[in-house]
Each structure stands twice: as C-alpha cells, then as structure tokens.
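Write out the 3D structure for:
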Amino acid sequence: MKVVLQRVKRASVEVEGKVTGSIEKGVAALIGIAPDDDEAILKTVAEKMVGLRIFEDEDGKMNLSLKQAGGRLLAVSQFTLYADCRKGKRPSFSGAAGGQIAKFLYERFVEICSELLEDKVETGVFGADMTVEIIGDGPVTIILDSNELNIKK
C-alpha cells in the first residue's frame, strides 16, 4: 500500500461535475492498493496516517495529529501510485491491485479511517475519472509505503 498525504487548507473531489467529497482543514490522501495488501496493512497504515503529528500546536510546532487538530480526511483511490517507469515511456501499472479486490481494500481502508476519525472522512468514487483539487497547507507532503513500515502479517 502506498499513500501520498498532504496537509490541506481545503480539498475536494468532483465526478462528472458533482462534488463527491470536500473538506476544509485536514489531510488529502491519495491511496494506492497492492495485490498483497491485507487487513493488517490497512490498519497499520491508517493508524500511522491518522496519528502523524503534522499539525501545528499553539507554539507553532508540528505536534498535533489529524484527530487532535480536529481535521478531516479526503481519501482518493489512486492506482497510478504503483506506476513502474523503469522501461520505456509508458508506465506499467501491474504492481497495483486490480478490480474488485482493490475496491474492497480501498473501501475497507476508508472504513478503518472513519472509525479512527469518528466519521470525519470524505471520498472520491473508486475507479471514476475524478477532478481533485488540493489547496496545500505548508506545504506538508508525506509518502507512506507499507513496505517501509514494520508490519507483521
């Protein structure tokens, strides 16, 4: 699993001209699912993401988590995070989970995040052509890769 998260002032997703998710202060997360991702990976990455202290406290130090800062999460499926550009000019996406398994795992990840954040989660539409607007705050951009976290299956 790969997640690119950005601390945002606001972010939104549109599908066919309709807003499907919109947040003010919080985190926009682009989420890529791999074929071997499982519940343990989803839970560990969600807990890490929600717990990262990337929001400023009263002293201006990045010392508060998303939940502590009262922020919201915009979760957007993004299979292109698994682009393999080693050969040629056309990326291969064979490292991304496909179809129903990717949808199921993405939706389960959103459920876990909703539990952790007490339903302060908005989403895009899995598999849709989406317009994503992100107004960054900082900028603060962090990449979480489950291969770099110590996850026991």
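The mean pLDDT is 96.
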